[in-house]
Amino acid sequence: MLLYFIISCLSFLFLSKSFSLPPWASETKTLLSFYFSKNLFTTTLHPTTPDPASPLDHQMSVLDLPDLALDLILELLPPSGLSSMARVCSSLRERCVSDHLWEKHLITKWGKVLGPAAHRDWRCYLSSSCHLDSPNHRIGHHPLGFDKIISLIRSISSGDEKRKRYAASSLPLDSTMSFYLSLETGRFWFPAQVYNRENGHVGFMLSCYDAELSYDTHTDTFQARYAPHGRKAVAVEKGVTWERLRAAPIDISPHHLHVSDSLNELKPGDHIEIQWRRNKAFPYGWWYGVVGHLESCDGNLNHCHCHLNEMVVLEFNQYTVGSRWRRTMINKRDHREEGNEEEGFYGGIRKLSCKEEIAMWTRLWPSSILE
């Protein structure tokens, strides 16, 4: 009862700051504040010994809170706090590993880089032999406290039959917590796309390529594995930062042609991404460009009819004027992969309408014009 009284009083104090209350409420708030401050001051200076005749006082714990209050507290905890609370007792463990708590953390930290392909690969990963209790995986100290989570998972995923039965209900491997943990520890390589691959190599400026990524929690960066180009070995890049990652905007294999659905809407000045690959053995990457004017057009928007023509001019202004990579033309009425072995092959087109996407390409603009 004392606990409910304290909660009620504190709620009254907080609410009184947000609403207009009568004069007596202000006086009551002052008296309550004085009572609690006096009681705290007295307790600090003159600690009292517990009354041995009241054993129930010693049994008061966080579990005595109403379910709603306890859930609100757990929702405010960071992942490390949830992992610590999960080690207190079986009741808190059951609450702290629940999906609804971890989904918020998963979306907050990983939402922008996880697409449908990542979730599909996670399900395949669960069905493979590379699960969390692999003895070949060495895990060191995690700054966020995930060494505690790992030990928790291993403790409830091994041992006697009673513990295994509990593990089946308390923390299934397909839980959101397991997904979060596998991402945090770098165990799970997930698919995403990387801007300006291979440390901004000049041959990939203003492009975005598919890769498999593994997180390094000690550096807060990623290791990327790119699909092989023809007979070349798999390219690996370390130190990829969060800013250079995105979830694939179109759920399609990098070896498949994207069927464009906005070609007839294209007009000069539109921002686009277009698939391009060096030859047919290579995967596509997405390259940034803008729609330009036909040579027969003087660029005056009042007299421009370029959008009515079946041919569309695409400009890649990161390249110098006269470069073979500066301009290309596609047929928007019968669009398919176009190109040759010398200049590469152009595939599907995405019209960019999102200001954030356009701003991202602007931030990645090279400091000097490319040849």
Summarize the structure.
The protein is α+β, with helices and mostly antiparallel strands and 371 residues long.
Can you tell me about this structure?
The chain has helices spanning 2-18, 23-45, 67-76, 79-85, 90-96, 99-110, 116-127, 146-157, 161-170, 176-184, 197-200, 355-363, and strands at 190-195, 207-216, 221-226, 235-240, 245-246, 271-277, 285-292, 311-315, 327-331, 338-340, 344-352. It is of the alpha+beta class. Strands 1, 2, 3, 4, 5, 6, 7, 8, 9, 10 and 11 form an eleven-stranded antiparallel β-sheet that branches. The longest helix has 23 residues, at 23-45. The protein starts with a helix and ends in an 8-residue tail after the last helix. Residues 1-46, 132-146 and 152-170 have low confidence and may be disordered. Residues 1-20 form the signal peptide. Keywords: Signal. Pfam families: F-box-like. This is F-box protein At2g32560 isoform X2.
